[in-house]
Amino acid sequence: MSLPDEQLIERTLAGDLEGFGELHRRYFARVVGVVEGILSDRSGAEDTVQNAYVAALQALPRLADKDRFYPWLRRIAVNRAIEEKRRLDRKGRLHSSWVEAGRVDRDADDAPSAPLASLVREERAERVRDALDELPDGMRAAVVLRFFDELPMSRIAEVLGCEEVTARTQVFRGLRKLGRILGDMTADE
Q: How many CB atoms within 10 Å of residue 8?
């Protein structure tokens, strides 16, 4: 039987780090998925999330609402991802792709007899990744949280530390800009 987050946090605070290990196993992949959407780099996302876990462990005694561990951790990770993205952008070293990282959506029954369909899906995923990379940080984070982590607007606002109307605006403008970018990409072909 799986213990609730609150009990795992209490165990961790009492010195049993296996409780924190369980929290790590429970949420690591989910948080990496969100952060990967921001960084477009699986390895960088894993490193960023690992650093977020370290920060969370250090700040755990100050977590007031112990049953909200995942949203709290996700916010730490998203903030660190945005910082990392800005740092990489400043250095001009943003690289990697969702396709290389296995982020492309594949059907479970993808058969070798469908190489053209697979190629088309990979090309579309690469176009979306490239378009996401062109969005400003706040817009990118809002779009990723909405459509990859499937968060409601109230949660997106909480993660980004803004009002809900601002989160809605970021998602709307991000989608509109993505549409323009993707439309331009299609027109260029």
A: 22
Inside any domain, residue 28: yes
Q: Taking the complete model, does pTM exceed 0.85, yes or no?
A: no
What mean pLDDT is predicted for residues 150-167?
A: 87
Cα-only R_g, the chain = 18
Q: Is the pLDDT of residue 96 over 60?
A: no
Find out whether 105 and 121 touch, Cβ atoms under 8 Å: yes
The CATH number assigned to the domain holding 15 equals 1.10.1740.10
Helix (H, G, I), strand (E, B) or coil at 111: coil
Q: CA 24, CA 5: separation in Å to the nearest integer?
A: 11
Phi-psi region for residue 3, left (φ > 0), alpha (ψ -120 to 50) or beta? beta
